[in-house]
Design brief:
Blueprint: E1 3-7, H1 11-23, E2 27-31, H2 34-44, E3 48-52, H3 60-68, E4 75-80, H4 84-93, E5 97-101, H5 105-120, E6 128-131, E7 134-137, E8 142-145, E9 148-150, H6 154-165, E10 171-172, H7 173-179, H8 186-203, E11 213-216, E12 220-223
Helix pairs in contact: 1-5, 2-3, 3-4, 6-8, 7-8
Bound molecules: calcium ion.
Length: 226
């Protein structure tokens, strides 16, 4: 049974999430502030942490930062719509995903399952990546979409490989820039958009309605989960 730690100070939300997760077959432990969340994470060794960003004592971003110094436990942040920049910082600190409040518990459970699935899959070690009808031969730097070879630039290849290795995972522009070995400045981040546009023209049947490389509004991009 997978164990989920919920760190949330709002009693109603914590209870709703706990009940839903138990019903979905998860073992649940809880904390209501940052420091005890951190202590619980260390003592209980959960398989996943659902972490509210606005917490007393120590906020969710600080909890994430401290956790990531020693642990790669999957983290899903609970965020308010007004916390857009925090969301981005959280993803850059290493959180795996976020869910905006108010959220449906069903959606949260689906996200938890998706992140656990990714965490269980071996990452990066292989010589090739396959997602649906996309296949990438890494040593040959060769990409095929629906059996057809697609010619990509080095940058487009690196962007696509980064995202396709973990379908469904959201990458911020700064993280994608990092994958392109670029430097993170706001103006350069816009260059990510330009490369994504070119990549879509090459691999999307309809670049105006992308089905593979998806925009996550206000945050970045992800490769579509199957
Ligand atoms: Ca809160």
């Amino acid at each position: 049974m997978k164990k989920v730690l919920i760190v949330e100070d709002e009693v109603k939300i914590a209870r709703l999430v706990r009940d839903y997760l138990r019903q979905a077959g998860f073992d649940v432990v809880e904390a209501t502030d940052g420091p005890s969340g951190l202590a619980m994470a260390r003592a209980e060794k959960p398989d996943m942490i659902v972490l509210d960003l606005g917490l007393p004592g120590m906020d969710g971003l600080d909890v994430t930062r401290q956790l990531r110094a020693t642990s790669s436990v999957p983290i899903i942040m609970l965020t308010a719509r007004t916390e857009e920049s925090d969301r981005i910082v959280g993803l850059e600190l290493g959180a795996d995903d976020y869910v905006d409040k108010p959220f449906s518990p069903k959606e949260l459970v689906a996200r938890i399952r998706a992140v656990l699935r990714r965490a269980d899959a071996t990452i990066g070690g292989g010589e090739s990546v396959t997602v649906g009808d996309l296949s990438i031969d890494i040593p040959k730097r060769r990409v095929e979409v629906a059996g057809e070879v697609v010619e990509l630039t080095t940058t487009e290849f690196d962007l696509l490989l980064t995202m396709a290795r973990q379908p469904g995972r959201i990458y911020t522009r700064a993280q994608l820039l990092d994958a392109m070995h670029g430097v993170s400045f706001e103006s350069y981040e816009r260059s990510v958009d330009a490369h994504i546009k070119n990549l879509r023209r090459k691999i999307e049947p309809d670049p105006k309605r992308p089905a593979r490389v998806l925009t996550v509004y206000g945050v970045g991009y992800k490769y579509a989960d199957e």
